[in-house]
Amino acid sequence: MMLILLFDTAIRVSELVSITLGDILIDTENPVILIHGKGRKERAIAVSDRAATHLKAYITAYHKDHTEPVRPLFFTIIHGKMNHMSVRNVERIVNKYGEIVRENNPRIPESTYPHLVRRTRATGLYRDGIPLEMISTLLGHSHSETTKLYASASVEQLRDAMKKGQENEPSEAPLWKGHEEEMKKKFGLR
Question: Measuring CA to CA, how many Å separate 5 from each of 45, 47, 160, 180?
């Protein structure tokens, strides 16, 4: 569930571990999670229908008889006391599953961590044509300049841009055809 939310919402790991049951509104037409971001800024993040389905199942499994709004979505119980899960614990879990996936996909980096998931999602959105300002809002960035760090063009995007730049170029036929004598004269070959 952690990996699904990290990717689906592109939230920071610190934002993930601070989610409480009261922050989740999934039984609506447009499921959202209220995120408590840096600088005590709050933002509502849309959750995909698929993620909402998984989230409902997770809540049913791990919070079945507990609906207190302040209850942490992801928690640990130490010495009989419930606490929000730590950032470090989430980092360990993400890395563990990164190692498992890497067995079948060697392109997965040696070290996987929550911010890699966030950056991958943001870059993917940018490559899919989502405006930078919208991605900036999703990520909770105060300035879109920060978001530009995620905005690296893919090889496909660069290739498409180069094709568009060639659309107004003359046809493939050599320009010198039929003007051989004039070309020789211009280049001192006569």
Answer: 11, 8, 32, 66
Q: Which residues of 133-144 are buried (b: 16+ CB within 10 A; e: fewer)?
A: eebbebbbbeeb
Residue matched to tokens 């302040």? 70
- Global confidence as pTM: 0.75
Count of CB atoms situated within 10 Å of the CB of 13: 22
Position 33 in a domain: yes
> Can you say how many angstroms the Cα of residue 59 is from the centroid of all Cα atoms in its chain?
24
Q: What is the number of domains present in the chain?
A: 1
> What residues in the chain have per-residue pLDDT under 50?
none
Q: Which pLDDT score is estimated for 33?
A: 96
What's the pLDDT at 98?
94
User: Distance between CA 36 and CA 42 in Å, rounded?
Assistant: 5
Residue 55, domain extent: 2-155
Residue pointed to by tokens 């689906």: 8
What pLDDT, on the 0 to 100 scale, is given for residue 131? 86
Entry field: residues in the chain: 190
Tokens in use for 164? 């568009």
